[in-house]
Amino acid sequence: MTAAELRTRNAAxxxxxxxxxxxxxxxxxxxxxxxxxxxxxxAGIDPALICRYFGSKxxxxxxxxxxxxxxxxxxxxxxxxxxxxxxARAILDPDERAPEHLAFVxxxxxxxxxxxxSGVVRRHIESQFMEPFTAWLGGERAAEKAWLIACIxxxxxxxxxxxxxxxxxxxxxxxxxxxxxxxxxx
Length: 186
Hints:
mainly alpha; Arc Repressor Mutant, subunit A; 77% helix
């Protein structure tokens, strides 16, 4: 193994260790309560390496968000006539309540009081959810519909995370499916 290969492997491992430590800290304490030194300590690295790899705490947070969220268009995109049912099933699926699937929502809610973190979250949601979903919806009121559906889905995700059960299984899926489909079809 060459010295360059060794550095690359160590760089990737260091970057991953920083991301894991930052994710854990941001989930636990929220953006404003987390310091770069604490993240570095958890990752077992010098704090200067966070700046070297990510540039700033804000950019590190953006990377954590990006690594925690999934491409929403995998579920949202597709046949318009089955949108409501497809999305309702996905969001109410018990497997979606696993802690790793709720991490994005937790990061957003735990850091929402921070003006800096809120800006990062807003930019991420705009580019990764609102813009592609608005384009998929199309039409003159697409942005309004995308915003309304985003609010419904975020609320359902939070409430399911709190309550655990949204109601009677298939009945809850069908209720949510009707609401979502009505917004798309309007």
